[in-house]
Design goal:
Distance between the termini: 19 Å
Mean pLDDT: 82
Largest sheet: 7 strands, antiparallel
Low-confidence stretches: none
Structural class: alpha+beta
Strand content: 25-35%
Length: 258
Amino acid sequence: MNSILNIGKTGLHSVQRKMDSISDDIANVNTFGYKKKDISFQELLTNEIHENDVLLSDNANDKNINMGAKSRIASVNFEQGVIVESSGEFHMAIEGQGFFGVLDGEGNMTLTRNGSFNMNPDGSITNDDGYYLNMNYHIAPEDWGNDKVNITADGEIIQNTEDGTINLGKIILYNPGVLDSLIPLGEGRYLPNQNVDLYNSIDYVEGFGDIRQYALETSNVDLAKSLVDMITSQRSYSLNLKALQTTDDIMSMINNIK
């Protein structure tokens, strides 16, 4: 009976993790650059059942019982979301492979597909969370003129002035050698694995998508599918809970037998 209770408990925990992941996906359905998570279930170790434990048929095969299940985030689904138009001058979407590099106040870099950047009064370019866009500056931002800028497909920032065309800088894209090696940090940011090569669009021309200015990439969450998965998970949770309640009732009946 204790084994059955433990199996039911692992089932509840597994489904709860699935529900947490689905809830996170649904909450970020409108978050630009967000990538949904794929959850996998795994059977725990099995215990062999002996004839002195229970009555077994002579035709019984695989005389064992597993000790429950566990769930985990198997991978992040990096399938590209829909690209929509935007009015922001530094709003960008990546058509194809690659990530923007963003820096925190201490210079630590993480990767993101969310290209909703804006220029601040001091000339710095940050996203809505205050992370700085990592790029090569040919001219210091405070020396940029007031004319609008054009961002080319390969990340060059061009400004057309009365004196001609000026190359202000270049946006760098990054791509790890193994995509699944990225560590999710939340907020659509990912930490590169130090044991995996990280390629950039400065040293490597091939293998990167095009940057599209005045556009943003939406999340790749399928809201209808996520809602169906949530309903299925809720029913699975209820089933596991019912099994636990039934087991507890049976144990109570056994204990009351005199």
